[in-house]
């Protein structure tokens, strides 16, 4: 079985940017490899997720869902409604969400603190060119 997925442009793996969802193309993902669900694909931009194996230009396959578990790599909106790809690290003592950069060489310990977390999906796979 195949499931259609849209490639919808880039997601910053650095500083958050305004959400720009435009469909570049459609692809069919085999459910035997990727599982079932509503997926979309984003092209990674920046270097903040390199320790998670995500580098600039990679295609990140996102399962569309509004929730995440601690440790998930999420597409999330920050407090200014700008989207970013980061690791969800839970909540601080004030109930604010913590989104972590995953590149200790360039961004040691860097985090984004979000008052109201809006999860747009969870990264499930990365496709990269060799």
Share of helical residues: under 10%
Overall pLDDT metric: 87
**Overall number of strands:** 10
| SS-based class | mainly beta
In quaternary terms, these chains amount to single chain
User: Helical stretch count?
Assistant: 1
Q: Rounded to an integer, what's the Rg over CA atoms?
A: 14 Å
Shape descriptor reads globular
Task: Provide a descriptive summary of the structure in words.
This protein is mainly beta and 130 residues long. The protein has one helix and ten strands, in the order E-E-E-H-E-E-E-E-E-E-E. The chain has one helix at residues 31-34, and strands at residues 2-12, 17-18, 25-30, 39-45, 59-63, 73-77, 82-91, 97-100, 111-114, 118-127. Strands 1, 2, 3, 4, 5, 6, 7, 8, 9 and 10 form a ten-stranded mixed beta sheet that branches. A hairpin with a 5-residue loop joins strand 7 (82-91) and strand 8 (97-100). The longest helix is centred in the first third of the chain and has 4 residues, at 31-34. It is globular. The mean pLDDT is 87.
Name the descriptors.
single chain, 130 residues, mainly beta, 10-stranded mixed sheet, 10 strands
Briefly say what this structure is.
By secondary structure, this protein is mostly beta strands. The protein has one helix spanning 31-34, and strands at 2-12, 17-18, 25-30, 39-45, 59-63, 73-77, 82-91, 97-100, 111-114, 118-127. The protein contains one helix and ten strands.
